[in-house]
Amino acid sequence: MQCSVWEIFVPNYHRKLSRPIIASRVSAGFPSPAEDYIEGRIDLNKDLIPHPFTTFYIRVMGDSMESLICSGELLIVDRMPESNDKDIVVARLGNDLCVKRLRILDDGSVWLFSENPNYKPIQIGEEDDFEVWGKVLHSIQSF
Amino acid sequence: MGESSAFDSILLAMIALVDCNNFYVSCERVFAPKLKDCPVVVLSNNDGCVIARSEEAKALGIKMGTPYFQIDYLIEKEHLTVFSSNYCLYGDMSLRVMEALNSFAPETEIYSIDEAFLNIESEGMESIAFAQKLRSDVLKWLGLPVSVGIAPNKTLAKIANRIAKKLNLGVFELSDENQIKNVLSETPINDVWGIGYNSARKLKELGITNAFQLRNLDRRWARKLLSVVGARIVEELNGKVCLPLELVPPPKKSITCSRSFGCMVEPFEYLNEALDCYLVKAGEKMRKKKLTANAVTVFLATNRFAKTEQYSNSLTIELANATNSTRELKDWTRKALHQIYKQGYLYKKVGVILQGLQPETSETIRLYNEPNYEKDKRLMQALDKISNKFGRDTIHFGVQRNNQCWQMKAEMKSQKYTTCLREVIQIW
């Protein structure tokens, strides 16, 4: 791999986001009507990533999840939450990691579904070496 | 004095030592699941020797510190997987582990890249259940297996952790007096935390070979033989708490940046180029921590394992004004290198140490007013911003180039999965 250029990838949570101070001051003029509504700016790190230290980034290649997730998109994967039926997950099946929709049916059977109908669902057997690696929280598509 | 009384009074406060199993190998495995159950080793800088082994690699008889060339035949023969060390990855995973541990116990002491002491306030079965939960959560959240040793103090927690690992228990608690006696008599003194090679030798001469004998050593003797720290360790083996958690890491006194070259280097300019590169890294670190240096040391050395003429030397320059300007330090390191450089030798290593670090304050007194001071400060800020955003190798000082010759060997390095967007793991 060529030497890295973008070292921005671990979100910096220790950076303080400075917010405007709203504490009222004694002032002679008419108070700004917006004063009560000032908030901090949107910080995607904070809003999209609840557990930074268990969150990993994964690049998806291939079309098995199209049209939900396209090839080249960047997944934000959190390993902390438990995964439930219908969640999009990164799963480890044997030696490989893949991104699929997790289905846990009423009869208790566990399946991995691709969004692309050209790919058949995979049923997970008792003996399969399988684990949910992490839950996909977001997928980022860049244009 | 009743021996067990000390234990009774401190049962409430327990210390857990959490240690990542085969940490570097485990980090590699998180992103390469196919390496599960396979022999894997990680090599030191420059692909020199083995510094981490999977259990399967240990089973092949590979020892810590084995030179790479002695085991490379195992790649074919035993499907051994070999990695160059990837400190970006290990460093980031370490931070994640420490944050995870912190969510379990607010009082933690980071002891090394893969170990931390935790203050846990529970007892008996509860602390074991707590540790098992911690273990399974860290495994799920980060994919890293850890072992936990629980005991009334740090010294015993270390011993408990060793047993957890050795017997593959995951968690081991050492709190029952009889059990402690048994365990200590089976722990060789070399394995007691803080007992170094020399102390162990001295103790063995006196017939003290295990931790139980050490625990019963007369206190005055302990102080004489082992100094103050050693005496505290003896107290801790007796169940007392003498080494409290260091919750705030002591501030850094110096920053060293140095590497061995991938090949031998002779010309002065090449050495200086390498030195500049290390200085840039060290300078960045220093400014990030808002520190300034009062002295700078430059050292160089030939390869002491080669049958060539040997020479090594170092020179420290004390600076009239504390500084954290790479530009200013660059002049000094060049001068220092010039002083100690001798022609005709093949050099293997050069490095820089920034010393006498102190917080950068606005009132840092400058003896004479340097016109470049403010300019330099702005230059360094801009430089750090650029390298933060685009990577360290984007912008260079005049001569600082990437010369293939002194670049470190790291031929089998994995990707920077967690710290570099271009190198994240890809899945299909």
Q: Could you characterize what this model shows?
A:
The complex is a heterodimer of chains A (143) and B (428). Chain A is mainly β and 143 residues long. Chain A has one helix spanning 44-48; strands at 55-60, 74-78, 88-93, 96-104, 110-113, 122-124, 130-140. The model of chain A is unreliable at 1-12 and 16-26 (pLDDT under 50). In chain B, a hairpin with a 2-residue loop joins strand 5 (108-112) and strand 6. In chain B, helix 5 runs antiparallel to helix 6 and helix 12 runs antiparallel to helix 13 (326-340). In chain B, the strands form three sheets. Chain B has a five-stranded mixed β-sheet.
What's this, in brief?
The complex is a heterodimer of chains A (143) and B (428). By secondary structure, chain A is mainly beta.
SSE inventory with pairings:
The complex is a heterodimer of chains A (143) and B (428).
Chain A lengths: L43 H5 L6 E6 L13 E5 L9 E6 L2 E9 L5 E4 L8 E3 L5 E11 L3
Chain B lengths: L4 H5 L4 E7 L2 H8 L9 E4 L6 E4 L1 H5 L14 H4 L3 E4 L2 H18 L3 E5 L2 E6 L3 H19 L3 E6 L2 H13 L4 E3 L3 H9 L11 H9 L5 H5 L3 H19 L17 E11 L2 H21 L2 E12 L9 E12 L2 H15 L6 E9 L2 E2 L13 H18 L34 E3 L1
Parallel strand pairs in B: 2-4, 7-8
Antiparallel strand pairs in B: 1-6, 1-7, 2-3, 5-6, 9-12, 10-11, 10-12, 10-13
Helix pairs in contact in B: 5-6, 12-13
Share of β-strand residues of chain B: 15-25%
Query: What's the end-to-end separation of chain A, in Å?
Result: 24 Å
Kindly report how far apart the N and C termini of chain B lie.
67 Å
Rg of chain A, alpha carbons = 22 Å
Q: How would the global form of chain B be characterised? A: globular
Secondary structure tally: strands of chain A: 7
Radius of gyration of chain B: 25 Å
Strand order of the largest sheet of chain A: 1-2-7-3-4-5-6
SSE arrangement of chain B, N to C = HEHEEHHEHEEHEHEHHHHEHEEHEEHE
The class by helix and strand makeup of chain A works out as: mainly beta
Let me know the average pLDDT of chain A: 82
Low-confidence stretches of chain B: 1-11, 362-369
Profile the largest sheet of chain B: 5 strands, mixed
Q: Strand share of the residues of chain A?
A: 25-35%
The largest β sheet of chain A comes out as: 7 strands, antiparallel
Structural class of chain B: alpha+beta
